[in-house]
Amino acid sequence: QVQLVASGGGLVQAGGSLRLSCAASGSSFAIRTMGWYRQAPGKQRELVATMTTDGSTTYKNSVKGRFTISRDNAKNTVYLQMNSLKPEDTALYYCYARRTIVENPYWGQGTQVTVSS
Question: What local confidence, expressed as pLDDT, does residue 30 receive?
Answer without folding.
Answer: 78
